[in-house]
Amino acid sequence: MEETSREAVATAVQRVAGMLQRSDQLDKVEQYRRREARKKASVEARLKAAIQSQLDGVRTGLTQLHSALLDVKDIQGSLADVSKDWRQSINTIENLKDVKDAVVQHSQLASAVENLKNIFSVPEIVADTQQLIEQGELLQAHRKLMELECSRDDLMYEQYRMDSKNTSDMNLISIYFEDVQGLSDELAKQLWMVLQRSMVTVRRDPTMLVSVVRIIEREVKIDRRMVDRKKQSGFIPPGRPKRWKDKMFEVLEGTVSTRIEGTQSVTREADKMWLVRLLEITRKYVLDDLIVVKNLMVQCFPQHYDTFNRFFGLYHNAVSSRVKELAAEDLEANEIVSMLTWVLNTYKSVEMMGHPDLASECDINALEALLPQDVVDDLLSKYVKTFTSNITGWLRKALETDKKDWQKETEPEADQDGYYQTTLPAIVFQMFEQNLQVAAQIDGDFKEQVLKLCLKQMNTFLIRYREEAVTYKEEHLRDRQLPQCYVQYMIAIINNCQTFKESINSLKRKYSQSSEPTDSDAAIERTLSEVAKEGCQFLLDEVFLDLEHHLYELMTRKWLTGSHAVDTICVTVEDYFNDFNKIKKPFNQEMTSEALRRVVVEYIKAVMQKRITFKNADERREGADRMIKEADQFKFLFRKLAAGEDTDRLCGAITAIAEVFKLTDPTLLFLEVTTLVSKYPDIREEHIQALLAVRGDASREMRQMIIGTLSENKVTYSAVTQPIFKDIAVPTITNTMTSMTSMATAKLLK
To answer: Looking at CB atoms within 10 Å, which of 128, 586, 619, 655 has the fewest?
Structure first.
C-alpha cells in the first residue's frame, strides 16, 4: 500500500512539474487546482459506481445459490421417495408377466384381425391388379400390389417374431401369396417396356413415364425400409430388395445401346457410302435424343437423378463402344478417313455434342476420347499404308496414260498462254489435293505427314518420269519419223516440269505449316531441273541431227566456193524455235542460249578439224569475209530469238577467228592471235596450231614463236563467263581421216 502511495505521489509530482515549467504558469495554479479537483471527483464517482455494481452482482448470485440449494434439497427428497416406491413395487411387476404376454398376444391377434379382410380378399385383389396392369393403369396396379405385399410381409413378420424356426407356417403364407410375386414381375415388365420406349413415350404421353418413375421411387423407399428392419429384427420379405432403380438405369443403358447399334441400315456390299450414312444417322439420332432429354425427359425424373448428364454419359459410352467395333473391322482407306474425321472433329463440334442447345448443360471438354489413341494411331498407320500403295498405283497408271498420249498424231493441248502441256500434272495434283483435303479434316499433324508422303512419292514418280522421257527419246532415234509429234510432246514434258514445281509450291503453301525447305524439296527440285534440262537437250539433239550434214559442209572447199549451209542452218533453227517458243520460262531462255552456244561450238569445231587449208591470201580473205557474214547471220538470228547477253560474245568468237585468217601481214599474226587469246582465254595451244594450219602461210618457226610466247604469258579466264573452246577437241591425224570419211559419206548420202 505504501509503495502504491509513493508511486502516486511521484506521478503527481511529475505532473505538477510538467504544468509549472514557466514562471507565467504560476498565475494559473488555482485554475490547475480546480481542474484536478474536478477530475478527482469524477474518477471517485466512477469508482464508487463500479464497486456498487459489483456488490449488487454478488448479492444477486448469493440469492440464486440459496434458491438452488433449496431446489436440490427438494429433488433429493423426491428421489428418496421414488426409490422407496420402486423397492416396494418390484414384486408387483414380477406378478404382471402374465399380463405382458397377454398384451403381446393381443397385439398379434389385433394385427391378424386387421389383415383378415385383406387375407380373404387376396384372390380378388390379385385379379384386379392383373387387370389394371393389362389396362396400363400402372399407378393403381402398384397401389394394390403394395397392399398385397404389405399384408404378406406383416403376416410373415409376425410369424417370424412368434417362431422364426417354424418354416412350415412361413411356406404356407408364401404359397397363399405366391401370385403376388408374379404380379410384381409382370408390373416390372411393363415398367421396363415403357422405359425402353421412353424417347417415344416422353413425346406422346409424358405422364406415363412420370408414373413409372413414381412407382420406382416408391419401391426404393420400401427397399430402404425393409433393409433397415432387417438390421433390427433379422427378417426381410421375399423378393426384397427389388433394386428397381438400378434395373431402370440398366434398361435405359440397354435402350441407348440398342438405339445406337440400330443405326446401320446398309452394308458395304449394298452401298459404298455405308459408313458415312451410318455415322450421319448416328449423329442425328444422338443430337435429337439429347435435345429431347434436355427439354422433356429431365422434367419426368427427380432432380437428384442428374438426368441429362446421365443420358449424356450413356450416349457417349454407347457411341464409343460402337465406333470401337467399327474400328476393329477391315475398313478401307476412305472409310478410315470418314471414321477419324467423325470421331476427331464432328463428334465434339456444334453439329453434335457441342450443339448450342446442349452447351449449357454439359462440358464437352470433359468427355473422354471416343477411341483410344493407340486405336487412332493404328487406323492412321493403316490409312498411310493403304494410301501409299494406292498413290503408287495411281501415279503409275497416270504415267502410262500420259505415255500413250505421247504417241498421238495430234499435238498436245496448250494452256491459256499457248504453252504445250499434257494432263499429267493436273491428274497427279488433283489426287494429292483430294487426299490432303481429307487429311486436313482429320488432324493438322496428320495433314503434314500425308504431305510429306505425297512429296516423297512425287520424287520417286519424277525419277520414273525422267526414265520414261529418256526411253521416249531413244525410241524416237530408232525411227525419227515416229512419233509424228515428238518435238511437241517433248516440249510438253519440259513444261510439265515447271507445272509440277508450281503445283508443289502451291500445295506446300496451302497445307504445310513450315516454310523451311526439306531434303525432299531439294531432291524434287533437282530431279525436275534434270528432267527439264535433259528434255531441252533432247530437243537440241533433234535440231542438230537435222543440221548434221550441213555442219559437215562448213569450212570445206564447197563452203568456200559458195554453200548455203549456214542459210539452211539458220532457217532450220528458226523453224524449230517456232515450236520451242511454246516452252515455258526459264527453260526457253536457257534453251535458246544453249542452241546458240552449240551452233558456235560446232562452227568452231569445223575450223579446228582443218577441213580446209587456205592456199593464198585471196582464199583467206574470202573465207574470213564469209565467216564474218555468217557470224552476223547467227547474231541476227539469235538476237531475234532473244538468246541473251552472251550472243555478241559467242558470235564474236567466229569473227575473231576470221580476223586471224583475214590478216595479210604475217608479221602481225602474233598480235592478232594475242588479241584472240585475250578475248577468249580458254583457247589452248592446239587450237592456235589448228588455226595457223588452216591459215596455211605460217612457217614452223612462226608457229613455235607464237606458241612459246603465249605459253610464257598465259591468260587466266574467269569462271563467270561460259567457256567456248574448253570442250572443243582438236582431232589428231586419225580423227581427221575419220572426219573426212564421214564428210564424204554425208556428201554421198546427200
So the answer is: 586
